[in-house]
Amino acid sequence: MSRPEHTAPPELFYDDKEAKKYTESSRIIHIQHQLTTRALELLALPEGQPLLLADIGCGSGLSGEVLEEHGHTWVGCDISQSMLAIANERENEGDLFALDMGTGLPYRPGTLDGAISISAVQWLCNADKTDHVPQRRLGLFFSSLYRALARGARAVFQFYPESAKQMELITTAAMKAGFAGGVVVDYPNSTKAKKYFLCLYTGPPSSFVVPSAKTHVMDE
Questions:
Q1: What is the pLDDT of residue 210?
Q2: Cross-strand partners of 186
Q3: Strand 195-201 relative to strand 149-159: parallel, antiparallel, unpaired?
Q4: How far apart are CA 127 and CA 69, in angstroms?
Q5: For the CA atoms of 130, 135, 136, 137, what is the dihedral angle to 10 degrees?
Q6: Is 0.90 topped by the overall pTM?
Q7: pLDDT in tens, 139-157
Q8: Please, what sign has the CA dihedral across residues 163, 136, 2, 60?
Q9: pLDDT less than 50: residues of the chain
Q10: 165: buried, middle or exposed (CB in 10 Å: 19+, 13-18, 0-12)?
Q11: Closest Cα partner for 200 from 179, 185, 186?
């Protein structure tokens, strides 16, 4: 089964039909809830304190709903107009806008308390147009995110790296932008359950410890 990012650019792949199918799938809803909950754990936010978080590649708002359940305010962006249309129909509480994240984020400096992204950042490794250079687009994205985050804030990206080379491309771009951090691999010995999370930090590298991975899978 081919990877979605090899099929078409995201704004074309997630058309009205695909966006509707994605949002109505009980399996996808369950996975999105699990991944977003884990991303929040890795953000290590102060307990009982509502914060402003960004959901980058927010899709139809499934991950944003989890942020709302935890009492946070969120802003979301996505390149797919079809996904955003469904998010608005579902009356998500987040402020949403259309954006190609490879062109950089428009948030004011230091305004975000944290950021998550579920299954999105690997799309930036594609060159879907003649002027798309993955290294440049990743650099623009991570540098703009670094500026938008308050100092000491974290960002967590769940992603599906196609290869070790692609994972290095993504992590190198993040570190060049100023982030400290590393990749957490949950369930590394499981074929089905293995998940990758890039955990980034805007404070001094010496004060950041890469979180521990989950290792035990109850049911394969």
A1: 86
A2: 195
A3: antiparallel
A4: 36
A5: 80
A6: yes
A7: 999 999 999 999 999 999 9
A8: positive
A9: 220
A10: exposed
A11: 179
β pairing state of 180-186 and 149-159: unpaired
Write the secondary structure of the chain as one string of H (helix), E (strand) and C (coil): CCCHHHHCCHHHHCCHHHHHHHHHCHHHHHHHHHHHHHHHHHHCCCCCCCCEEEEECCCCCHHHHHHHHCCCEEEEEECCHHHHHHHHHCCCCCEEEECCHHHCCCCCCCCEEEEEEECCHHHHHCCCCCCCCHHHHHHHHHHHHHHHEEEEEEEEEEECCCCHHHHHHHHHHHHHCCCEEEEEEECCCCCCCCEEEEEEECCCHHHCCCCCCCCCCCCC
130-157 burial code (b ≥16 CB/10 A, e <16): eeeebeebbbbbbbbbbbbbeeebbbbb
Q: How many CB atoms lie within 10 A of CB 196?
A: 18
Q: Which pLDDT value is given to residue 217?
A: 67
* Interatomic CA distance for residues 125 and 171, integer angstroms: 12
Q: How far apart are CA 113 and CA 155, in angstroms?
A: 9
Q: Given this model, what pLDDT does residue 1 score?
A: 53
Tokens of 135: 């290294």
Please state, in angstroms and rounded to a whole number, the distance separating the CA atoms of residues 25 and 140: 33
Phi-psi region of 73 (alpha: psi -120 to 50; beta: other; left: phi over 0): beta
CA 160 to chain centre: 11
